[in-house]
Amino acid sequence: MSVVTPRGQPRLPTRRPAPKLGTGTDALYLAQHGWGVVGVDFVPEAVETARNRAIDAGLSPRFVVGDVTQLRQAGVEGRRA
Prior knowledge:
Layout: E1 3-4, E2 10-11, E3 15-19, H1 25-32, E4 36-41, H2 44-57, E5 62-65
Parallel strand pairs: 3-4, 4-5
Antiparallel strand pairs: 1-2
């Protein structure tokens, strides 16, 4: 599946961090469109709500309770573009 960028150019899905996870709306949207998502929020209840919404939608993004300014300490690793 491809994702269309704002300029209208097709692009293959890739990994995308989702800081300020909240209840997961943005993270779930990206996951539905083929992106690998890691959602991060410091509020455990918000992360739990996002996880439940993902299960209900049949999706499996990764959600982490942590500080988005300290991603390595939250166990979120990745490569830079």
